[in-house]
Amino acid sequence: MMAMKVFKFGGASVKNAESVRNVASILKMYEESTIVVIISAMGKMTNAFEGIWKSALLRDKTAKEQLQAVQEFHGQIISELFEETPRSLASQLEAIYNELEDRIKNPITAKPNYFYDQIVSNGEIISTLIVSAYLQHIGVSNRWIDARKLVKTDYNYREAKVDWNKTRAQIKAELLPYFESGESRIAVSQGFIGGADHLNTTTLGREGSDYSAAIFAYSLDAEQVSIWKDVPGVLNADPRQYPNAELLSNISYKEAVELAYYGASVIHPKTIQPLQNKNIPLWVKSFVEPEKSGTLIDNNTAADSLIPSFIVKQNQRLISIATRDFAFIVEDNLSDIFHHFANHGVKINIMQNSAINFSVGVDEDEQKLEGLLNDLSNQYEVRYNTPLDLVTIRHFTPEIVDELTKNRNIIVEQRTRNTVRFLIR
Ligand code: ADP
Ligand code: ASP
Ligand code: MG
């Protein structure tokens, strides 16, 4: 079968005209390859669309102004990329903006998550229309592909679940004949979005474009995936917090999924499984220095423990739940407690239990947590502690533990052979 690559370009790599030109130049570096290019919304456009949705929901009157700002942002990039906007691009965008204007004319009163997906998905639709037209304009022949028709999902808006059988069949049916026809070697499609049916767009959860790349790669048995980032690859810490972070040049799928799970936000946690299942190597590379090799994620575990890595999640709250009558916390209580967490959509980052106490570390979110704490308080004695940091260290050494915890007050500590975690103040 034909060897295909999947490239994913995130928001930072298409945030202005210059970065769109850079994407084109990276594609030109791979002129021998057949590539599915998955692109996110430009810059911070997903947040901007979320703002429009929120305004329509809260009936504040600024939704229309915000939509205009979004239109101007894209308009500016288009004006720098083209001497004259290609007619088909202009009319496609006009149709999208008209539809959006219609949608937000009246406040959203029902099905907020459904409306979220119908509105916010346009960030990816618009960015891919622009990039595809620009590539065409400079002579890089390509086809724009609508991911809503290929990535088939359930109706769980904002966190849709992929129907793998349908998705794989659709992606193969659309892309294999296209590439085999030799018409061109590039297809451009959207990250983050899918479709429950032909009328209902869904999204896969924030930051989901990495996952989309894995979905396409899995479906096509791609030879590799590259996700192009504003960092040299996967580092042993977030360089925004630790400027001296070091590059991990090769880690295993297992190590990558653990890092992502603990909160290393450089890769979406769902990305790894489909690639691991088909043994497809994942490269995390710099769009600033595309000739550098970056990080290779594959089956090889040899280098996993060479460099300790750490993840710091700030703004954590520790919730301590105890029985009112000094009774033990037993399975019945735990199942009831977990139920409350699930009902309020609160994700648990760390937990620990003792005889009469159950403690849980979660992301701070006053609104969500207020409801949860109210419910729990009906039955239990509930206290909390905030703001804390959750520090996770993989392949820890005494030195690194000391460095990250010195002069701090450790509230919870958990150790396994490879990982140590602290909730600290
Ligand atoms: P995208 O443009 O694809 O959406 P993201 O912003 O989601 O990219 O991911 C890249 C960012 O992830 C980097 O700018 C970096 O600050 C952050 N990051 C967090 N942890 C790590 C890590 N361990 N290694 C590299 N980058 C990290
Ligand atoms: N644009 C989406 C987001 O910002 C998806 C992504 O970029 O991965 O969440
Ligand atoms: Mg991202």
Keywords:
16 strands; 2 domains; 425 residues; alpha/beta; Carbamate kinase; VC0802-like; binds magnesium ion; binds adenosine-5'-diphosphate; binds aspartic acid
Which helices and strands occur, and which strands form pairs?
Blueprint: E1 4-9, H1 17-29, E2 34-39, H2 45-58, H3 63-81, H4 87-105, H5 112-120, H6 122-137, E3 143-144, H7 147-150, H8 164-180, E4 186-190, E5 193-195, E6 201-203, H9 209-220, E7 224-229, E8 250-252, H10 253-262, H11 272-277, E9 282-286, E10 295-298, E11 309-323, H12 331-343, E12 350-353, E13 357-363, H13 366-377, E14 380-394, H14 398-405, E15 410-415, E16 419-424
Helix pairs in contact: 1-3, 2-3, 2-5, 3-4, 4-6, 8-9
The structure holds adenosine-5'-diphosphate, aspartic acid and magnesium ion (MG).
Summarize the model shown.
40% of the residues lie in helices and 23% in strands.
Count of structural domains: 2
CATH superfamily of the largest domain: Acetylglutamate kinase-like
Strand content: 15-25%
Strand order of the largest sheet: 3-4-2-1-7-9-10-8
Question: Structural class from helices and strands?
Answer: alpha/beta
- Intertermini distance: 55 Å
CATH second-level architecture of the largest domain: 3-Layer(aba) Sandwich
CATH topology of the largest domain, which one? Carbamate kinase
What is the chain-wise order of helices and strands? EHEHHHHHEHHEEEHEEHHEEEHEEHEHEE
Ions and ligands: adenosine-5'-diphosphate, aspartic acid, magnesium ion
The gyration radius over C-alpha positions equals 23 Å
**Low-confidence spans: pLDDT under 50, at least 5 residues?**
none
Question: Overall pLDDT, averaged?
Answer: 96
Q: What is the count of DSSP helices, taking H or I runs of 4+ residues?
A: 14
